[in-house]
């Protein structure tokens, strides 16, 4: 649970009004540990918000009058949306200001509106509910973050079991996660999907724990039979994660990241958009990573040569649109120190 200081901000161009708001809230013990800031200068509120955030505070509720000089309440709240997206906004308005209410609702920037003059009981109850709503979302976000961290730790542990056989690819999991996240976001996919790909892409080769160690570490070219054996890692990986507990995207990545756009991949021989998009993304990340890093059977390839090979695979091995998204931004991607050689992206 967070120990960040909590704030309510009251805004009205009349000093007496914001003082009254603060006093009425202060009379209720619910707000005993909440800092209540007031401002009778709406144009200075963004600076007040920045100061609170800079000190590590959480702004739970913003209460604003609608009709104020220089800036209206809806303009103020919409303008602050980017700084405090989770803040519960309460607008004090008259019935003639319903257009402002509609604008805020349509922009998901209004928790509740109260008609002026407000009823004290309604005011206090509304602000209590708003505070509770904010806190509930904060707890859910914190728990979700912990669950995601635990899930990622489990994913990493599974993949690390595979990497145990090959120390040269010790950073492989992190690189594939970063590259897959980058491609998905660059392609304009929605943020929940981007996070899903980031989380599950490291599992792509988990099935290699079921492949003979001698074959995985063989320094030379594989025989036909050895390669057929290696191909089975995708079905082995699918069995490892089982049918329950993992998103379907995880299984799709494991089973289909070796499929090719032209249908020449394995094991299912899928082609084009029949290949799940998450697998198409990881395929690009995996091949690029394999090209530019040293493996037991090859030296690392120079960056420029690797990109030429990737371009040659457009519409053959790779989804053309996803590859274009990858190629258009790969020069600008920032990798944590140590994941790639210093000269890789030079």
Polypeptide structure, described:
By secondary structure, the chain is an alpha/beta fold. It has two domains: 6-139, Rossmann fold (3-Layer(aba) Sandwich), CATH 3.40.50; 164-332, Hypothetical protein af1432, CATH 1.10.3210. 50% of the residues lie in helices and 8% in strands. It has helices at 15-26, 45-54, 73-80, 98-106, 120-163, 172-186, 191-200, 213-216, 224-231, 233-241, 248-256, 277-292, 303-312, 320-329; strands at 6-11, 35-39, 58-65, 88-93, 112-115. The two termini are 44 Å apart. The model has no long low-confidence stretch (mean pLDDT 87).
How would you sum up the major sheet? 5 strands, parallel
What is the count of helical runs? 14
Order of helices and strands: EHEHEHEHEHHHHHHHHHH
Q: State the shape.
A: elongated
CATH architectural designation of the largest domain: Orthogonal Bundle
Strand adjacency order, main sheet: 2-1-3-4-5
Number of domains: 2
Mean pLDDT: 87
Task: Give the amount of beta strand, in percent.
Answer: 5-15%
Number of strands: 5
Assembly type of the shown chains? Answer: single chain
Ranges with pLDDT <50 over ≥5 residues?
none
What percentage of residues falls in helices of 4 or more residues?
Answer: 40-55%
